[in-house]
Model the fold of this input.
Amino acid sequence: MSKSLSANDLKKVCKVPFFEGLSIDDISNLLNHSSVIETPKGRLLFSQGDVADKFYVILEGRVKLFLTNEEGEESIIEIYGAQSSFAEAAMFASARFPVNGETTSASRLIQVEGPSFLRVLQENKEMCQKITTQMARRYRSLQNEIIHLKTHSPAQRLGVFFLSLVGDAQGQDVVLPYSKNLIAARVGMKPESLSRALGRLKEIGVICEKDRLRVENLESLQAFCKD
Done:
């Protein structure tokens, strides 16, 4: 089911990093031909090889980008949550989606039609520069993540992910955003390696039980992740 964007939806989009620096009027113009879609868990949004003529903004819910090999084994590339966007790069390149995209929970998404979005950008150089800046920042972030995957142990990668979840909430319970299997895939480890990594982190005061996470000492975890 698709709907038009509401004023509240536009306010949420203002908090999406990709649109940082743009006014609500600019965003409204860019998304003029976009629609809000409501999907159940497990809805395939696009498949690898499909024409990338759109991208998405998540208002509520989660989406995973993934690949599958010939044996049907799944490799998760990224998981996005509310107030984030994805698939912009493929759309800008007028290419095909390099991965599959699927919701991992019931979700509300903005489906942004590429041709109309690009047409508005072509007519506004300042707006185009701001969007280009955000694309460059995302590219640098991906570069840093690749370096992190290559140079850190599984437990360190898991620790960095946990730090992103807890923020400053030392000693407080935080609800995990998705299953432990998805978390393992997100940080580049197999599910069977997760228990070993959790055991290592428990030694420095990181408690992860069922769907709850608690970090007793943020400084200890930060130091562990930097070693």
About this structure: The first strand starts at residue 2 and ends at 3. The two ends are 49 Å apart (CA to CA). The chain has a mean pLDDT of 90.
